[in-house]
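Let's study today's protein:

:::
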Amino acid sequence: MAPLPPRELLSVIEAALLGSAAPSPAQRVELLHAVRDAAPAFRTLLSYPGPKASDRTQVESKEVRLPGMPPITLDDTDVQTALKLSDELNLNEIECVRLLVDANREWVLYGRETLEIYRLAAGLWYMERRDLITALYILLRSVALDQGLDADLMSEIEEQIQPLFNDGLRQRIIALVKELNREEPAGIGQPSSERYVLDFRGALVERRAIVSRERLSLSHCLALSALIKLMSPREVKDVFSILKDCAAEANQNSSVELQITYGVLFSLVATFISDALSTLEKASLSSSDSSFRREFHELVTRTGNNSTIEGFVGVVRLAWSVHLMLTQDRSNSREMSDIWSCLETICRQNSFEFLREQVLKTAAYQNDDEDIVYMYTGYTHKLMMCFISHPTSRDKIKEIKEKAMTALSPYGPPWGHREDLGRNGEQVDQPTKEPFVSLLELVREIYQKEPELGNGNDELWTFVIYAGEDHTNTQTLVAFLGLLSTLASTEVGAAKVYELLQGKTYRSVGWSTLFDCLSIYEEKFKKSIQSSANIPPDFPEGDAQALVAYLAVLQKVVENGNPMERKKWFPDIEPLFKLLSYENVPPYLKGALRNSITAFIKVSPLLKDAIWNYLEQYDLPVVTAPLGHHTATQVYDMRFELNEVEARMESYPSTISFLRLINALIVEERNISDKGRRFMGIFKFVYEDVFGPFPQRAYADPLEKWELALACLEHFRMVLSMYDIKDDDIYASVNTLAPSSIERQLPLLELLKDFMSGKVAFRNIMNIILVGVDSLIKERTTQTCGIILEKAVHLSLEIFILVMERDLALADVFRPLYQPLDVILAQSHRQIVALLEFVRYDYLPQIQQCSIKIMTILSSRIVGLVQLLLKADVGKMVIEDYAACLEFRFDDFQVIEDTKDDVGVLILQLLVDNICRPAPNITHLLLGFDVNGSIEQTVLKPKSHYSCLKIILENLEKATKPEINALLHEFSFQLLYELCLDPLTCGPVMDLLSTKKYQFFSKHVGTIGVTPLLKRNSNQSLRISMLHERAWLLKMLALALHISDISSSVYREACVAILYHTFGQCAENFQSTSLFDSRALTSISDVPAKRNKVLDLLEVLQFRCLDTSMKYPQLLSNLGIESKIEEILRNSATFENGGVYYYSERGDRLIDLDAFHEKLLQMSQELNSQLSESEKAGLKESVHHLLKWAWRYNKNLEEQAAQLHMLTGWSQMVEVAVSRRMSLFEDRSQLLFELLDASLNATTSPDCSVKMAYVLTNVSLTCMAKLRDERFICPAGTDSDAVTCLDIISSKQLPNAACNSLLFKLVMATLRNESSETLRRRQYALLLSYFQYCSSILDSDVPPSVLRFLLLEEQEGDDEDITLQKVLKEHSELAHANFSIIRKEAQAIVDLVTKDAVHGSEAGKAISFYVLDALISIDHEKYFLNQLQSRGILRSCLSDVTNYLSKVGNVKIGEL
């Protein structure tokens, strides 16, 4: 079997191994077959046929034959492009022609320039390479790493992968990592080659960058392969050689090159550690080949001059020494000597420091693939655990520890006398660290990345206990405490660290040391203030650093400790506050104190209140004046420390910690009735003193700049989200003439005014955003501060959204001084572009979400937004960025729980919302309409232009991963329906979807249309989405049938295809049309086309929805709060307006679980004081029960709405087809009977709700009306002279049995238990229509002899007389059968109809009397007449008529 193309191979592998659910049996089989068939491609990875003279001659002849295809004729441009591809990519000429054919199929190359064609074809080739490498990477990762996949399946895959390594796959990967970096056609290309290609979205990408990404993926594959099959000695040497080459080229500013080097490095580390720890009964890598052991040892111990190469070699040396220690022959003294010499070199060069600083802490390492980083960290953990636990290395650790203890302290004079301090008090020019200190910091770094690796790790805790003993050096103490703070990052670790520092394990390291030291210094400062000298004592830097380290441990222990246990751990935290107000305490120590205090806020509400009190008592004050004013006197407060102390140091740890502490305290406040007035002073400090001048300040560490900004932005977001304002607050702020005091100002209003006037906060936040996507990506991938900058950008975007949610309410009052934010933004195109371009930033989905939300808001406010983007020359970029974002979401395998945060849903909702806005709008732009010309005249070419429309159509055609993409498919169908409905976009979209290329309107009927629904208990969300998806599809079919112009051959064929594939039939004169000649009838569905899928669709939606009524627990009834809950649920307000509801993305009004929970908690707290402990527990359980009910209520309500939506779409499609396109059907009466019968069947079903019954009855009415037309309209037309009396008499009518069946079901539907007067009126109309259909076409007053005479006049013979007798007999039988059916349910029918006739509405009374009249007219036994007389109905009717006539007569007499 031929191997799958790379794209299809990758799709199969991803579907089976990356899906949210376990692969199905069919997927497993398909996966294993695909992997087996792809084995040759993997063995010769990225090895393609080279140029060939005969093939070049064939291409130059302009006629080429490709396998499985007819001859292809080339023009001069094709030949030129193919040969250029061959020369510059080292490809065979025929293969290059194949690339051009595929590129044309993908992009439509007609009309493009030669260079663009070349770039598209080359980009397609690189995409194929990428898909193949990615497929191999996923396979290796699934086998090498435990990702929760089926063990048997992984074993089968491994069995197929192992032979690949035996056949040289790893050697091929090693060669590619090296060769692809060369300047030759098979690598990055020659200097004269074209440097750029076009990627999948049509964007220019540098060829060198693509090849670098390939090398990176290959280095990942190399590292993973070491976990599946150990390297051979030759492979180890080759990889070590490549490592040195990569290290020589690695640059800290080139993250990809560094990541490639890390992949090569860790492939060696994994090989050595895996081999050493292997439990297989075989010789190890080195012991099986003594010559290799000797040769490689010589290689690894050889030193060089390049420090970077030596650093990476030092890490390999460390892994090699561990390998030697674990596999050594203790009787061999030479081996011990080799090991010890290795350890000496490692410690002398301090390889621990290089591994930590130049590998683990780099931005390149942190931004690498998440699974790969986990593997790297895991093997670093194994490496270090082996190192710290082996007796030989423990001796070396003991030696370097003793050396570190006796070393001079690196800390200088006291803090107050020094000017060369960097962040956290560190000196700018520090001496080289001791190896023991670096070892502690390296172990800390490992568990900082993966804290759970420390749980149950006895070797680690043994090392920790040893490392904490007998510290005589502050530097080692700080490093040790830093390790403890990291180990306390889990609940288990926090408990263990707390116990370690209780004083029983160490003599001088413990909690008592921390608090005693704080008390001692507080006492010193207090005495100095009380003395006459008034000179505060110096604070030694070593002591300050030790306290900072202690406080970091305290912070982590409290943050991660068990919520119940930690309440007992530190009963008195007052000493943490006492040093905050002293000037001579280093700012970085104050920062550590406040950070540790912040950890205590969530311990208990009482402790939070105590922290407020202690801060007011001890911390520096925030002296404030009204906004825009400053205090005249200077005091040592937070402002002074910020501007005079920290600004001189160019470091701001105290201010940052103060803002974090205040933010954490304010966010926990539950009493927000004052709307933040009491925190106005703090807001003013943040707004004016911290955030206002923050861009102009100098920073020793750029990380602090963004941490400071981040703390301010958190404060602003908190102000905007926590507090609400009313009209009174707005008018009060406007009507105040004099400057108001701080106590009367509202932080929220002041911040909104700033944004609405474009002042300092707006400008600074806008400048953060103006950093731009490209700069942010560069910072994120090359600098460790990039993550903090990323958070700042995210918060800035969120703040813009929060402001735009409120600014319109204030704008009317504040104009003209203050304007809506969109008006401020529109003053510069650059600002709007900067906000919208972050949809391209895919490192943090939340940033993309914010950018899309801002686009949604701006598109609804700025009418000329599209023209603005075109003027700024970013229109094409925006189209491609949104399409790429949507495509990435469609391809993603991650299940998104909260659909409000789904970027795909946000984009599709943006497109739907903008359809009806003035043209040209954002929908027109993003879908590829001609926004510079006429929207109505646009010829859409999604194959030629990369846009959201191309992505939507491709993914609807594939319809893959429904469990992940169902909501996207649903909204995509809705979007296309809305586009077909809109007058501007209808023509272009209908033209596109009606073409044979797409066959859009008919292809999905046999796939998603009749697929069985999932069980409710398996995936109810997917079940709901499938119903809505089908609803929009059916609506589209109805719309296409309704508006299509049959005179156009394209539209006619589209309509015929719809009818054929839904109703299973069409008129014979249309079946010969070209639409049915090839794949149209076979490729759309495997279900036979003659089957009436309309009936299948109706069956799909016939199910009973669960009851949403609430059954309250008995306790709630006893406590009397049942009525309060009912009142909460009766209030239809949304949670923003004090209610408990919200509107979903589909428009369903659902219960907001958080808001409902909060309301229930408020009621519980009010009752708690009156309840016993058992009642409190019962009330808590009842609240949980109510929340579960609310969740079920939401799901069931969504399912009911989806069911009704699909039925509505079904009814529209059926009614339009029957009303507008009846002439296209063959057996019309039979079709109408089937539809009518199915509708009545569904109506009588106990699963059918009243709303559904109403919709179904409307369908029945339409079908019955068309049946009447079929019978009573002359078959040859009313003006035809060829129509005879016999033709009229013998006009087609349903068989009597069919009519009887319809009447019986109609009676049952009318008498259903659940009903309404509105529904019954429609059913009465249907009943009257049925009686009319069954009535004789012959007038009963005309004698049969006259009819016979008329028939004889037209044509002599006895056949006419026989026909007349047959017609009269059948009609008589039908009339008796109808009466018999009605007679069986006569009592119930009379009761129901007379009730409506007496008590119904005016319309109900009228049609009820019509029904009674019809019943009397068919009543041969006068049963109904007697019933009406006995009930007094007739007397009442006559009395009403008499009274009415009397009133009318009196009025007329009065007028005369």
In short: Residues 415-423, 425-431, 1068-1089 have pLDDT under 50 and may be disordered. The first strand starts at residue 63 and ends at 64.
